[in-house]
């Protein structure tokens, strides 16, 4: 692997580019057209190369996956995803630790792809398995009205997610 990158609309781009800069690796950030430059300023400050995709976030993610295959690049939310999930699940550990290892009643997770929600759920199940917490936790995923493909699919009882063409958040 001679470079890293991600599909992102902001926060993941900043984290990926910071770690790439520290490791001395080139970084490619795939973003859907229309993402505000302010959301990408941190990534660009670390020298990331921006790839603007004339399409949705899902299409940017798809292109990042093809790029990873073609050029042997580690895309954190595609081909090195297991490490991404393992890192993200530690949010559950932090929440429970800050509560003195009491089981939280309810955790609300912002969603883009839903990956963070799945990772937090995994972390909570692991904590329960080893006996650090007990009981059940209610987890809710939330999305803004202007870009809510998962929430829309749930509300409409659809099995598949429809890409959002015009993001308004």
Summarize the structure in short.
Helices cover 45% and strands 16% of the residues.
Structural features, described:
- The chain has 169 residues and is of the alpha/beta class.
- It has two domains: 4-79, 3-Layer(aba) Sandwich (Rossmann fold); 85-155, no CATH class.
- It has seven helices and six strands, in the order βαβαβαβααβαβα.
- It has a four-stranded parallel β-sheet, with helices on both faces.
- Helix 1 runs parallel beside helix 2 (37-45), helix 4 packs across helix 6 and helix 5 (90-98) packs across helix 6.
- The termini are far apart.
Features:
single chain; 169 residues; alpha/beta; Rossmann fold; two-stranded parallel sheet; 7 helices; 45% helix; globular
C-alpha-based Rg, rounded: 17 Å
- Could you report the average pLDDT, rounded to the nearest whole number? 90
Individual helix count: 7
The second-level CATH architecture of the largest domain is: 3-Layer(aba) Sandwich
Give a count of the beta strands, DSSP E runs of length 2 or more: 6
Element-by-element helix/strand order = EHEHEHEHHEHEH
Q: Any idea of the CATH topology of the largest domain?
A: Rossmann fold
Helix-and-strand structural type = alpha/beta
Low-confidence stretches: none
Shape: globular
Q: For the report, how would you describe the main beta sheet? A: 4 strands, parallel
Kindly provide the name of the CATH class of the largest domain: Alpha Beta
The percent range for strand residues is 15-25%
Helix content: 40-55%
The figure for the number of domains is: 2
Distance between the termini: 35 Å
Lateral strand order in the biggest sheet: 3-2-1-4
């Amino acid at each position: 692997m001679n470079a890293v990158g991600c599909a992102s609309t902001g926060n993941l781009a900043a984290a990926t580019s910071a770690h790439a800069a520290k490791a001395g690796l080139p970084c490619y950030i795939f973003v859907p057209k229309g993402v505000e430059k302010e959301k990408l300023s941190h990534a660009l400050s670390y020298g990331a190369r921006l790839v603007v995709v004339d399409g949705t976030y899902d299409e940017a993610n798809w292109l990042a996956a093809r790029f990873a295959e073609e050029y042997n690049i580690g895309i954190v939310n595609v081909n090195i995803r297991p490490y991404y999930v393992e890192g993200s699940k530690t949010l559950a550990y932090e929440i429970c630790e800050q509560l003195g290892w009491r089981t939280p009643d309810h955790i609300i997770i912002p969603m883009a792809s839903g990956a963070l929600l799945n990772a937090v759920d995994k972390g909570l199940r692991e904590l329960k398995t080893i006996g650090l917490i007990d009981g059940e936790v209610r987890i809710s995923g939330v999305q803004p009205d202007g870009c809510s493909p998962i929430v829309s699919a749930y509300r409409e009882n659809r099995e598949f997610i429809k890409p959002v063409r015009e993001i308004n958040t």
